[in-house]
Amino acid sequence: MVIGLDCDGILSDLMPYWLSFYNSEYDDNLQVRDCTVWETHSVVKPECGVKVYDYLKMPGFWRDLPLMPGAAEGVRRLAAMGHELVVVTDTPPQGVADRLSWLQEHFPVIPRSNLVVTRRKDLVLVDLLVDDAPHHVRRARGPAVLFDHPYNQDVPGPRVKNWDELLAYVSEMDARQKAG
Questions:
Q1: Whole-structure pTM over 0.90, yes or no?
Q2: Residue 96: which CATH number?
């Protein structure tokens, strides 16, 4: 099975890292749990607003992201199960080189050629898309599972809370495919 993995919120723990820049500059204490909508600009101070997205364009931002708990081992296990892994990400153009370096450092089992940068994840042919973005999961043309975060609670359908649950979900899919 070809599994499309979003990067941020699945492989990398983007939100706490991103919010640390905002909180430092705007003297705020915004936490991930406070981000209950996808549109982050709507939960920051008004004087910041859409400028919160400027952090995503900072040189080196994408190179220093922390790993999502369980992601490194989870990716190794999915690969060992025989799945082809494709990173499907909507990284800004300024961050693609850093993203690639980060992926090669932390996930060497995923070939460099298996990085797809696109705003239209629904155009990428995978057997399962794992994402945290409501719009990507809603538009997926095939099976998709939502990685649970405070900002995607209004999205119906299959969801997992962590990498252990994702591995169990994929194992169940494998068993169903073998059975039928």
A1: yes
A2: 3.40.50.1000
Secondary structure (DSSP) of the chain:
-EEEE-SBTTTB-HHHHHHHHHHHHHT----GGG--SS-GGGTS-TTTGGGGGGGGGSTTGGGSPPBPTTHHHHHHHHHHTT-EEEEEE---GGGHHHHHHHHHHH-TTS-GGGEEE-S-GGGS--SEEEE--HHHHHH-SS-EEEEP-GGGTT--S-EESSHHHHHHHHHHHHHHHHH-
Domain boundary among 25, 45, 63: 63
Query: pLDDT digits over 26-81, tens only?
Result: 999 999 999 999 999 999 999 999 999 999 999 999 999 999 999 999 999 999 99
Instruction: Indicate the number of domains in the chain.
Output: 2
Place of tokens 């119906």: 156
Confidence of residue 180 (pLDDT cuts 50, 70, 90): confident
For residues 51 and 92, state if they share a domain: no
Among all chains, which residue has been given the structure tokens 């990284």? 91
